[in-house]
Amino acid sequence: MTGKTEQTAAAEALGYEQARDELIEVVRRLEAGGTTLEESLALWERGEELAKICRRWLDGARARLDAALAEEEQEGAAGDEN
Q: Residue 77 has what pLDDT?
């Protein structure tokens, strides 16, 4: 495995709260300034990766909620027929 692949796999193993908290820290550091261009770019790239992880978690949660609501509606409609 390459270093980049290992980093991506490790990042994807993060839970939503972990990724969100790290993203908050990345943004804080970028906003504070005082980093070199290279450090800023690395932070920005990490922030983008963390934002994608958070988005996947949120999209997955939305899909689960939508599925549960759809199932509930179907059960309600089936109950109305009886």
A: 81
